[in-house]
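[job 4471] stage=fold_predict status=RUNNING
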Amino acid sequence: MDNFDDWMAHGIKMGWAGPPVCYTHDGLPMSEQEDEEFQEGDPCIHIVRLYEDSEHKSAIEKDHSPSQWRNIYKETDNG
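[job 4471] inference complete, writing structure tokens
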């Protein structure tokens, strides 16, 4: 993939992800079953946060520790 837009379009086309939406204004994308589970319990719904730039990334990761410790894709010294 040459750029982010191509990569994102490919993921949507392949059915790996939905298009970016705004949680604040659009709500959390859920199926009817997930919505019912949410009312009755505590389902885990994974999201991917998109960053505007490297400063935005740093500010979010500074304030949201799961964005760091849940990152199994981060670069390591071994690779």
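[job 4471] summary: DSSP finds five helices and no strands in the chain.
[job 4471] exit 0
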